[in-house]
Design brief:
The chain contains 16 helices and eleven strands. The chain is of the alpha/beta class. It has three domains: about 100 residues, no CATH class; about 80 residues, no CATH class; about 180 residues. The chain has a six-stranded mixed sheet. A three-stranded antiparallel sheet has the order 1-3-2. Helix 1 packs across helix 5 and helix 6 packs parallel to helix 8. The termini are far apart.
Length: about 375
């Protein structure tokens, strides 16, 4: 006796369509496997004969109404009579799978996209085509076609020496498209090139001298790849995220304050020679999930930095300065908790509190709200590093 109903079959088919292997099945137009309908004892079947008959009827009706859906039966004794009992449903076509899952429109759209790719970029193998479909599944149709055209353009053209925003892609409405998300990886896959040979845009890092300089200069910048001689090699480098905190940071002997620029900082700042060679590097960001993730990224990039005012004790001390609002006035939502392997115990405790969906307190304490005299006291205390 089957223990799975038509609803169970539809749920299984829906899960299969949502799975990673569905795109290869669509591309190859292969059979999509089968689902066991379960098994009951003869006694259980006899005790539930009414339910059994309804389930069998519904399963037979489903299979008769969907092309490519096949019901496998096996003879069993029920009430002294040998009967054909459904034991398995076979999905012989992708169309049958998507029909049962209620995803026929999705299948039509995927096949349309496959046709576009095959026509425009015929060199892709089935595995590469499946990757393209997964990478573009959230793209609207106009952006998808733009991506395919970009891949074809890069396959035929050399963009060596220009930046991503300078590429003369006909019909592109957004010069920043190549710099967003996984678009560049997608175009590499479509073009068949491991390297698009684009010129890397220079990274600029602003910093402030916290001690008197020979020239009297207070602010300066570092450009990636350029010759840079600081007016003195700092003993202490303090990386901050807020512009007001950066501009107002107080004097500190042999100190330099660096403007971190959020998530961009870990890609460039750890490679600045005078930062890397400083006796101490201190990171001070907002007490929120984003700030702790940025701190983790600096350490993951190889920068031996300590943090200040980014643990539970600091949060409890300055909780009165917390906020529930983003810069645009919307409410701060809980961030998804990531596996951050470079936080200290105290930092991790704060991170877990701030990413706990049930936490009702402030999810952010902005660094500019904390008195700079308190910050300076933290910086000048003996540092132990990470």
């Amino acid at each position: 006796m089957p223990t799975r109903t038509v609803d169970d079959v539809r749920a299984w088919a829906h899960k299969k369509v949502e799975g990673r292997q569905c795109y290869p099945l669509v591309i190859s137009d292969s059979p999509c496997g089968s689902l066991s309908l379960g098994r009951m004892s003869e006694r259980e079947m006899e005790e539930n004969i009414g339910w059994y008959r309804r389930v069998v009827r519904d399963l037979r009706d489903l299979c008769s109404s969907v092309d490519g859906l096949r019901l496998e039966v096996s003879p069993r004794r029920i009430g002294g009579i040998i009967q054909d009992v459904p034991i398995r449903i076979h999905f012989d076509t992708v169309d049958a799978l998507c029909n049962v899952a209620g995803r026929t429109a999705w299948l039509r759209d995927v096949r349309s996209r496959i046709a576009v790719v095959r026509h425009t970029i015929p060199h892709l193998c089935d595995e590469e085509l499946a990757r393209v479909l997964r990478m573009t599944k959230a793209m609207p149709d106009d952006e998808f076609r733009m991506a395919i055209e970009a891949g074809a353009w890069f396959r035929q053209n050399d963009a060596r020496g220009v930046s991503a925003r300078e590429v003369n892609l006909p019909g592109f409405l957004d010069s920043k498209w190549l710099d967003r998300g996984n678009h560049r990886q997608l175009v590499k896959l479509l073009s068949g090139k491991d390297d698009l040979s684009l010129r890397v845009r220079l990274s600029h890092t602003w910093f402030k001298y916290l001690d008197t300089t020979p020239s009297g200069r207070r602010f300066d910048s570092h450009t990636t790849g350029d010759v840079q001689v600081v007016e003195y090699q700092p003993d202490v480098v303090v990386i901050v995220e807020n512009q007001d905190s950066f501009e107002s940071f107080p004097k500190l002997r042999r100190g330099i304050c660096v403007f971190g620029s959020g998530n961009k900082g870990p890609a460039s700042i750890p490679h600045i020679p005078w930062v890397r060679d400083a006796m101490r590097v201190v990171y001070w960001g907002d007490m929120d999930a984003d700030g702790l993730q940025i701190l983790n990224s600096y350490r993951a990039a190889g920068l031996n930095c300590e943090s200040i005012l980014m643990d539970l004790d600091a949060y409890d001390l300055y909780a009165a300065y917390g906020t529930i609002f983003e810069a645009d006035g919307s409410k701060i939502k809980p961030r998804s908790r990531l596996d951050l392997g470079f936080l200290t115990v105290g930092e991790q405790d704060l991170y877990e509190r701030l990413t706990d969906p049930s936490f009702s307190g402030f999810r952010r304490i902005e660094q500019e709200r904390i008195p700079l005299k308190d910050v300076l006291e933290q910086v000048t205390s003996s540092g132990k590093g990470f």
